[in-house]
């Protein structure tokens, strides 16, 4: 195919693809080159952007002199061909450069869909092509159509698309709030409480303007630091519903999140009752003034409170949109009330207000009220404890994070601005009221200064009023005595009452919404399984209606029966505990130095966050020490409960990150410490294959490595690299999870290799980390060695030689039934599958029966469809019954029992240690560690050593002395003096029959034939070799006789492993030694250390 290099080539009447793409056109033609040579200019590269999706037009940027080349192109009004009209691998023509980057290859360009979580509400998750997809050779019958990778990338045609679309449509109608209505308004309403109107003036009277401002600023410092920490956490990734619980749980993990989430939701529920009671008390006070009481003050509060909660519940259940509108109305009323106060301070005071202590702005009053004047029993911290709850409420916006359009933007902006505005308001009210109103006033207009009277020096005296009698008798007015100072000062008193109503109702409404939202998020995570019922949401906003009614019940209960004055400090401490954990979360995430900690909000410091956490804890004790203790006890109990239950979640918490950093630091620090014999511990590589296939081998190894040494379960995949790697990677997580589920403290490692020995050699050299490297190889005895192929025997003996070459100790474990239960597992798996099919079949049959009564044509078609599905069922059913009827014994019940023998508690008995050769002490250390375990603690050590017949007592005393120096307890010591005696003829005959198939018998043949046999079968046992090691062979047979005699009843035998010298002992002869040595015995551990000391008697 030939292509013209002129621009007309790019013109086509076919409409373009609506995808946005960028192209670079590079002129490669002769004419272009000639033109460039004539101009003696460097080549010009034209950048063309095909990007306007709405109009399918071109935007072209060109250099001077090249505009004419494109004028005709634009005037035609036609669009370029899409990349679908080009060949995927056409990279030698100009048309190649018109293709969108990433459309002509399976390799995908970056897209947000690849990084979403499964089930994300913001869009479907799409799987990018795997490394194998782009790395492996492309199949010949697979053609890469241009743009096909993009189809995959966009998830076109995937089964989950329809579901994702439906989910997106569902979410489209949901009400989402911006940062003003969603966060700013809620936080301001929640922070501005009743305290602003009825307690702030008293705080200024007690602490003075100076300390009053300090109290406000100290409270603001706590909330500001918490706000900064909240902002940092909220901008470190997508935030879902759950507020404080979500932030803490995703940062510190489910243990902290689950504990604080429950008490935080409960605190919000009880806070509804507190705020409603505050509203009801104000209404009852108004009823008292007008003498309109219904029953009595207490019952009136209950009646009004109950009615109020019902109305608030109705607003909440109506939907977030109605609740938000109510919040805006309440904020307007609150702002008017605050403005009304400031206006009132500049309206000239009348005689009645002066008598009550209000004189407008006066420098003398400001000076007099600047310092503290604490009454009896009050102090800085007690006043601070009363004010601090007024500064809380900063999480009101974060608590509805799931209902925000952009939580990452809204939470920092709205929360910090709300803290700033409310702090300015608190400071303004405190300073203004302190500059206008005296501390004590009688309220009597007759207490004026008469000319000639001596002034007592007070500010009121200088302004013409004598309130001196307030020093001797209680007065009803002034900052110290009248809680309604703001109402008196304001321009219109009823507006302050409206402000009180607004503050209480808005806080109650915010808490009534926050509690169910947080509780729903907690229940959705299924941390407390009993609470799963409350996870369900309703409507387009996923409203937690069940949570609303639960909150309603709790609020009603505390309104009707609880003593709120007692519960209030605990609730305040619950909120403070949440603040403390949010600050600690920010510090912890920063300290863990996880690369995933990348908050977009950068105005934070981890040490400031830590200081904030400590400050919150201190404030908890300042407010009420016993409430703080109760809070910590409840939180600790919930933490222990969640830790014990171990919820199956993985949120990538900073706790995980810090665990990794700590482990890494400790591993690096360990490398700086030289090994010492006192700290030696068996660190084992166990060749289990899949850990579940040889459980007994893993159990016995775990018995002496648990909590003391490293244990790595290893598997070697032999075969074609591609298949092996795929199988290996697919099973890694599953097998490690099996270890965790069975509470086995071990790691799983696997390698793919061309042969078994190469794989083990790789594991021996590369396993471990720093000082935590294996020093002992544990393998199972090869029970089928007589029937095994030559290569398997060579590999088996070869890995023992390799271990010794790498100076690694070897432990060979033998039990009578063998270790491999893979066939049993396979049968069990098949039975489970068949059982699942049977249950599914029964469910289908039940469905058919239930639908049999459906009449009409539709019912007939349904019935026919079901009948088609269930046609083959009789066959399946019969096969299930057949297999279920088979007895488990047919699958080797003895093997199953043997595989669990080391899981059981070992009864009273002995561990017989045959310490025949000194290997550094490993043969003694392993059984000693076993006796420390619960399952083996009833077993006593019996030590067997070789010795001379005429020196048995001396040898026994010497061994007892050595063991006592090693501080190893033993039940008995036996010195065997007849080890070197020849075995009886029957035993030797068994050995000879055992090795007969593997002997060469070259001495019975002529020299030529013998040499030929040696070349053809070099692995066979020669007569010369057998004669050379005859004494050693005698010893193995004789040892079995002695073991049968002394240790037949032992629970476990630990025996020195004979070493086969390389090049001298053939593999089959060595296997025969191991066979005859351990034949017909209880479980045996053949142990050989690396001949370096692992025991010492020095301190």
TrEMBL record:
Keyword Phosphoprotein part of the UniProt annotation: yes
Gene Ontology CC annotation, any one: apical plasma membrane
Top-rank taxon, per record: Eukaryota
Transmembrane region(s): 191-218, 260-280, 301-320, 326-347, 379-398, 418-438, 545-564, 570-591, 603-627
Residue span(s) of domain Amino acid permease N-terminal: 90-157
Main location: membrane
Stated name of the protein: Solute carrier family 12 member 1 isoform X1
GO function term, MF aspect, one: sodium:potassium:chloride symporter activity
Region (Disordered): 32-51
Coiled-coil region: 824-851
Organism: Bison bison bison (North American plains bison)
